[in-house]
Structure of Protein PBN1:
Amino acid sequence: MRRRSTYVTHPSHAVNPADIQVRQRQLLLGALKAAREERLTLGLEELPAEIAEYLRECHELHVRWAPEHPYNTTTPFLSRISPGLHIQYTPLHQGQVDRLCNLLHRVFGKQLRCDSPDATFISPPLISERFAQTSSLQYYSLLSSLKHLVAYIYHAVCAQNDLQCLHTVSLMNIADSVDFDYDSISHALTFTVFWSKQPPVFYDPIGDFTTLDAWNLDVQSGKDDRVEVGILSASSANEPSDLQLSGFLTVVGEDDHPKATLFSFPSRHHSFGPDQARFQKYTVSFDTPTGLHPNLRISFPSAGSLTEPKNKPPGTVCALQTYLTLPSHIFADKYAFLSNDLLFQKLHHVGQLHSIAGETDLEAPDYVVKKWGSTMLLELQAPNGSAGEAGAANGVWDVTIPLHLRYLEPKNGSSSEVEMPWPIVFWACTAEDGTKFPVNPFDRIQLGFEGLFGPRTMFYHLDPAPVKGDAPGRLVERISVPVLNLKAASPWSIESLTILAIALGFLWVLLRLKPMFGRRSTGNNQAPTTKKRQ
């Protein structure tokens, strides 16, 4: 097993290397305030048998999860996805008997809507068939909690007397992102967990003490393990396309003291400068009443401040984009966006539709749709300073995206509640000529949207800023959808009345047409008589 523990501190919480205790196979440090990433790399022989057996049937499998609550990103962990469970998958052989959905139900819970990859997954668009940057199949579920995953690891991985394993796994309940990555080339599974800040209460089961609002590091290395611990801080890089980190690295079991380090690397994901970051936020809501054709509204607090990143490389071109993940009960009419109607775009402050994939049938009700839903990459219009937009320069800038709800199954009630995750919003900028983005130590790929851009694209993510209300801090919108009330009418009665209405309508049409056929018949009978008289 290989383990990499990375702690990124704010410059105001700099660590004194003298406080880091390095022993033969142990590293100790108390009261550390930092963002944290844990990355484990495991061979197939180190995994539970059912996991290893299935992974041997995969060409690649990438699992991403994000919570419903907002969190702050930290350099170099700057990418964002919509809340929920995202899966990018390519089978080893086409047409193979696929058990992925069974495995997902075992690990993440039976509430996932997944029958089989062929039936439930969608095929994302590829910008290049030869150099594909995305997997061949894509899946999403609005999974709000990882409690089933935590319980699975408890029983399948941790020994009952392994307090360190049990405690570390329990911290996944407050994680801000969880990733799994496997490919058939490396034959290794990489498991990554990220926390944007220290927990309010941290209990050390080995030392049997509690730390408040801080991490307590007690990292141990097994005989056959390689464990690397980095305690780092971000600093300004020389190149706009780079990120830079400095601090201390320690290989537990090999080093006898922490070693100072300073390194930089090109990155596709970036943050805004301090003077711009507080204005680059957005809020999502639905116009009320929603009905069956809701308008998704993305609101930016300051139209005048919605500008391209100031820290972008010189000479680059940027565009404001949004990537929507739409469950099966809600969809976009691609024909409305593909028309490139200038009046439509100006009215809604949207631009070109770059991609739409998945279930976009305009008529099918939700209970007959097999796919999980659809995705959509849409360019947004930013204020351009024209006379018509000058009045909004100091106010809120709104973008509206017309969507449609599918008919839901009838129930004993007049409405049903459905949910939709917030889309992500970002500036996509072309990098300088010659810039290459090799896989950096903290790169996060297979996010669903980055494969829809060229390989030299940089992303500057805006922060979601939910308005506190009945459910404060949720990056999920809830919609009330009108449905057939079974208490008012049964499906059989509605079907019977529909057939009766169609029959009566058809009969009425025949009755209205009967006089016309009668006149035509009379005219045909009289025509020869008239000819004889002439």
